[in-house]
Amino acid sequence: MTLKVDIKRIEKDLYELAKFGFNPEDKGIYRQGLTEIDMAARQWLIQQMECAGASVHMDGVGNVRARYGKSEQPAIIIASHLDSVPAGGMFDGTLGVIAGLEVIRQLNENKIQLDCPIEVIATSEEEGRFGGMLGAQALSGQITKDWIESAKDASGQTLVSAMQNCGLNPLDAFHARIDPKTIKAFLELHIEQGPVLEAKQKQIGVVNGISGVFKWLVRLIGKADHAGTAPMNMRSDAFMGVADFAHEISRIIDEEGSESSRLTIGKVELKPGYAHTIPGEADFTLVGRDLDANVMEQIALSCRKVLSAIARKHNLMFEYEQMSWLEPKKFSSQIVSQIESIAQSQNIDYLVMPSGAGHDCQFFADIVPTGLIFIPSVGGVSHAPDEWSHWNDVQRGCDLLLATVLKLAEYSEL
Question: GO molecular function terms here (predicted)?
Answer without folding.
Answer: hydrolase activity
